[in-house]
Write a structure and sequence with these properties.
By secondary structure, the chain is of the alpha/beta class. Helix content is 39%, strand content 19%. The protein has two domains: 10-121 and 246-316, Bordetella uptake gene, domain 1 (D-Maltodextrin-Binding Protein, domain 2); 123-220, Periplasmic binding protein-like II (D-Maltodextrin-Binding Protein, domain 2, 3-Layer(aba) Sandwich). It has helices at 17-20, 39-55, 70-77, 91-100, 136-145, 160-172, 184-192, 203-211, 259-273, 276-283, 295-316, and strands at residues 28-32, 59-63, 85-90, 112-121, 123-127, 150-154, 176-180, 198-202, 216-220, 247-254, 289-290.
Length: 321
């Protein structure tokens, strides 16, 4: 199966000035699949503010967390395909959920049009500073010595941290206790407060407490170390390349959305995220890798990412609750 995506070339994504001005003619709604306060919510609000100024139309952000992004995705899938409702979500919706749930109230490939992947980010495995280990090797040794004594937070069953945690358990042969929270913004504070010992978190949400010494980093996902935290080794170099922690933020519209709306949202998002000051301070300095793929390239990436996550779900044994 392939995404429902109009068969137009990249050049066709750049419509004439005259046609581009017919959309938007009224307020645009960005439905964010996560609670307020997390990295994706902050980015959505920054994007909405700038797009609204560029379009001369209000762009409002509506948070619809729940059911591992299914609530938000379902509402957008069933909205009018007129270009005025946009879904902003992560890879959980399109790469992970189809392999975790026996059924979904929508078809991830048939009912959506990918617009663009905005950013890609890797997550750090972070721990409370009082834990008796300071690196991944120490964590594994402690977990093996005291099975079930170490817990880790995620933002829901089947979320990226849950999948990464279960994969680490599987590959390292250890027993960690999963503690799901209700949102991205709750997991790191739970570690800081000592409610749990570990979590997986993006640089955007963990950078400040890391620098303040309120948490410590043990490892990071990806093929290479982060330029912001070069002292933190990757799971791959520590011998656990299967522990994949990446996440991405992307924009989607309901299938059947006007080609004009898809093209302009992609084009104007690209322009805004190319602004040097915004790009550096709001994205790169927060650990985001700017991608801004075309709709066609994004659809192709999702197909490959979904295949990779299907293998990870099977190996990890993660299941939706």
């Amino acid at each position: 199966m392939r995404f429902v995506l109009a068969a137009f070339s990249l050049l066709a994504l750049l419509p004439s000035a005259a046609s581009a001005q017919t959309w938007p003619a009224k307020p645009v709604r960005i439905v964010v699949a996560y609670p307020a306060g997390g990295g994706i919510d902050v980015m959505a609000r920054q994007l909405a503010e700038r797009l609204g100024a560029a379009w001369g139309q209000p762009v409002v952000v509506e948070n619809k967390p729940g059911a591992n992004t299914i609530v938000a995705a379902d509402s957008v899938a069933k909205s009018a395909p007129d270009g005025y409702t946009v879904l902003m979500t992560t890879d959980a919706t399109f790469s992970i959920n189809p392999h975790l749930y026996a059924s979904l109230p929508f078809d991830t490939q048939r009912d959506f049009v990918p617009v663009t992947m905005l950013v890609l980010l890797q997550q750090l495995l972070v721990a409370h500073p009082a834990t008796p280990f300071n690196d991944l090797k120490g964590l594994i040794e402690t977990a093996k010595a005291k099975p079930g004594s170490i817990n880790y937070a995620s933002y829901g069953s089947g979320s990226q941290p849950h999948l990464a945690g279960e994969m680490l358990k599987h590959k390292a042969g250890i027993d960690l206790v999963h503690v799901p929270y209700k949102g991205i913004s709750l997991a790191v504070p739970a570690v800081i407060a000592g409610e749990v010992q570990l979590t997986f978190a993006g640089i955007a949400t963990s950078s400040a407490p890391l620098k303040a010494g309120r948490i410590k980093a043990l490892a990071i996902g990806g093929a290479q170390r982060s330029a912001l935290f070069p002292q933190v080794p990757t799971f791959a170099e520590l011998g656990y390349p299967e522990v994949e922690t990446h996440a991405w933020f992307g924009l989607f519209m309901p299938a059947g959305a006007p080609r004009e709306a898809i093209a302009r949202l992609y084009r104007d998002s690209w322009k805004l995220l190319q602004d040097p000051e915004f790009r550096q301070k709001q994205l790169i300095d927060r650990g985001y890798e700017v991608v801004l793929s075309s709709p066609e390239a994004f659809a192709a990436y999702i197909r490959k990412d979904s295949e990779s996550r299907a293998r990870a779900v099977k190996i990890s044994g993660a299941k939706a609750e």
